[in-house]
Amino acid sequence: MTDTQITADTDPDGLPPLQSVAWLHVRDGRLLSVRTRGNDTFYLPGGKYEPGETAAEALSRELAEEIGVAVPPSELTEAFTVHDVAHGRAGRRLHMTCFTGGPAAVDPVPGREIAEVAWHNAADFDVCAPAFRQVVRRLTEAGRL
Hints:
Layout: E1 18-23, E2 26-27, E3 30-36, E4 42-43, E5 46-48, H1 55-67, E6 76-85, E7 93-101, E8 114-120, H2 130-141
Parallel strand pairs: 1-7
Antiparallel strand pairs: 1-5, 2-3, 3-4, 3-8, 6-7
């Protein structure tokens, strides 16, 4: 039997990281966020890939499902990838590819899985998932929040 090597690309159980996508949409110095039903933590709009989807296709689909915003994959631009612990997943790693783009003015509406849509800034860390906090820090350092 061999030991499993724990790296930034595996979690304590040796599982590969969860792959997800997220949308960075800033308005008036605040970042668009969502809270799923039955949860008190806010996340960036986005989610996981469906089989065969590119990252931009997955995000386009998730935005339509979660907040009713139509953003064609061709209008999304990859900004950066966050590597962190997935919230509520017992130490499982997360690789979240973040995108900008789409319409400047949006009127997000909570979809079936979403309980609330909100706009957060750097002062709202306590209600956000770990990867979201990392994004807020990066955007604050870049002068976007």
